[in-house]
Design goal:
Blueprint (H helix, E strand, L loop, with lengths): L1 E5 L4 H12 L3 E6 L11 E4 L5 H8 L4 E6 L5 H11 L3 E9 L30 H16 L3 E6 L2 E2 L7 H11 L1 E6 L5 E2 L2 E2 H14 L3 E5 L6 E2 H12 L3 E6 L1 H6 L4 E2 L2 E2 L17 H5 L7 H15 L15 H9 L3
Parallel strand pairs: 1-2, 1-4, 2-3, 4-5, 5-6, 6-11, 7-10, 8-13, 14-15
Antiparallel strand pairs: 9-12
Helix pairs in contact: 1-6, 2-3, 3-4, 5-7, 7-10
Bound molecules: NADP nicotinamide-adenine-dinucleotide phosphate.
NADP nicotinamide-adenine-dinucleotide phosphate binds next to α1 and β5.
Amino acid sequence: MRVLVLGGTNFVGRSVVGEALGRGDEVTTLNRGVSGAPPEGVRRIQADRRDPRAVEVALGADEWDAVIDTWSMEPAAVRESARLLSGRVGHYGYVSSRSVYRWPLPVGLDENAPVVDSDPGSTDHADYAAAKRGAELAVLECFDGRALLARAGLVLGPYEDVGRLPWWLGRISRGGRVLAPGPADRRLQYIDARDLARWMLDAAERGASGAFNAVSRPGHTTIGELLEACNDVVGRNAELAWRSPEAIEAAGLSGWTQLPIWVPPNGEMAGLHDGDVSAAHAAGLSCRPVRDTVADTWSWLREEGFPEPRADRPPLGLDPDVERELLDARH
Ligand SMILES: NC(=O)c1ccc[n+]([C@@H]2O[C@H](COP(=O)([O-])OP(=O)(O)OC[C@H]3O[C@@H](n4cnc5c(N)ncnc54)[C@H](OP(=O)(O)O)[C@@H]3O)[C@@H](O)[C@H]2O)c1
């Protein structure tokens, strides 16, 4: 296929580019050229997506079989790209998010759950859920029946610049007693960016369309398996000290941010790791074992170093003093 990747130099986009090259696709990336360069063999075009005229000039009169769009900011930029591409691209894959659903996400949430209200012409991206939903609507305006809306949940894997799995790998590699949020058999749901990329490219090739929740099946792994896999790949320096959700709550710690990836089994975030993803799996999504994701992420971190924390995200991870205090608490 001739594939146009909008973005392509950060986490998910970089994985799309890597997978597409691996399968012999002809790849073009469009970005500003600020966040890094795509690998050899990729045709690069540059434009700021907030400048429709610049995008129009950069796209020229070229045609592609598929576009994969990683944009997460204002829907108006997606609307503009979709409009410019509608007559000369067969398929639009949009990397969306399960954030489009109304909060809180119930256990078992599927694609029929209500989504947030949004405007596909909005130039605002302060509200992430509305921005993602607005972008979906913008894609559908020109590509209904030819668009895959991949509503990803937690995305992990090499190039993860959000820093969730890198935080655990960094902490566990420092060794000692590591606060591990239990129970160890707490199920996790996530997607390796490379599996997401492969599935989106397959869908583009088949012309599959629709909105799908795209993560592993519930129970694909557990927090225990994930942290043990981290300990294995870094050389087993750490002792995982498991603490109950009640002890974590009593200490005032927040899942997801202070303890990345993990969320308590009860409460309004409980559904985050227990969604219904049968539709995407029936449509060909398959997820590699957690050990591969962890090992490959560690290899990438050792090769390229830990990514700078993203300015557009709250800081992640647990302060070492807070961790020690909780580990030393008698109960
Ligand atoms: N991380 C998660 O757990 C998670 C979960 C669900 C969904 N998602 C979705 O996954 C996607 C993540 O995508 P990602 O990691 O590939 O990248 P990203 O960090 O969202 O996007 C950055 C890419 O877009 C380009 N870009 C940024 N501003 C631009 C502009 N004004 N004009 C043109 N290009 C611009 C960047 O290159 P330049 O800077 O060089 O322009 C870079 O290639 C997002 O859509 C997010 O909503 C993530």
